[in-house]
């Protein structure tokens, strides 16, 4: 039987990759790891032609040149913790995993920078900074698995955006391999550098569609001398907004996190075995406030005095103040209990949206009502980084297999458009949110995104079909 042209092409590209990189870097057939077939999205696995695992930027560039010459698409992969399908292989693609490109190359105390390879797990980056007396403030629940290059490619947000900004604000320089195999090495270590276009911003948040990030220069921040936290119960959402305003004014740059959980969320985590929930159910909202200071002698009493003033002002129904680092971790354990929702709730649809802070509770109530009307028996839990305008939603119908995904998305994203929000606050677009991008981006904006993609990747070989 005569081989089909695409089968011949596939064999040729794998042979060329093995010839250039060696069989240790190119895994195909039975040697191809199944873990590279998918990310953490709910799209299911898709086997690539091969998994390429380079150890150097030069090897990444060589792989891109070979795949581009054969017209074979390449899907970059980091820690595979993305929730939108951005790192999921496409049929007939090569998965290019950066999992072996790890390590801290340099820490410069004078410029307060770190140069790091893109496949390095975020937790390793955090620990290296801490050992040197600094802080990398980016923090996610997937810190042990996600890769710093993937964090940059998706412009990850996380828990402390209210103080430090998104990943974009933490990056000074990048090394990037372009779709044709050319490499841009712009490992800038200076905060002030206005020499022409700041090209790194093209690649940060582009989800691997414009280039493959191989090395990064990160800004380092002073390591906090103390961390204080409080879990608060509030009587209504108006009090939540009032508390956020008071925290910004009264705590100033000390304020590092402001997380809010609605009552349905609290009811679910309160029933989880082994989780200590220090506030009773039945309140309108629950808030986790974190502050980081430079001197515990002054900052801890200041935080306590500020919290007491909010109670006296009538903003709080109840509150628990941390007395130790263990307490702070325990409070975050309450907020991070959402990682157990797959076990506690069964199948469901997760969402990451952004909204004007003042409109969040109105959105929550409208969303709950619309889901109940469209899907009798539906559940919906709401929580998130409200200080940053970021709301997470977990919604579904108990026992439904499959979940009514299309209806849930129509409700959630339709209301996002109505309330002037965004369909993605921090997770990206990938494949799963691509159909909804037009809800929050104009035709002109999307057209410009496509022109940028065509300019940098005219043959469409790098992560095609994602984002736009």
Automatic annotation (TrEMBL):
Transmembrane domains' residue ranges: none
Cofactor(s) this protein cannot do without: FAD
GO BP term, pick one: respiratory electron transport chain
Domain FAD-binding PCMH-type: 44-223
Top-level taxon of origin: Bacteria
Keywords from the UniProt entry: FAD, Flavoprotein, Oxidoreductase
Keyword Oxidoreductase: yes
Pfam families (UniProt xref): FAD-oxidase_C (PF02913), FAD_binding_4 (PF01565)
UniProt-recorded Gene Ontology molecular function terms: FAD binding; oxidoreductase activity
Family indicated by similarity: Belongs to the FAD-binding oxidoreductase/transferase type 4 family.
Protein's recorded name: FAD-linked oxidase
Lineage of producing organism: Bacteria, Pseudomonadati, Pseudomonadota, Alphaproteobacteria, Hyphomicrobiales
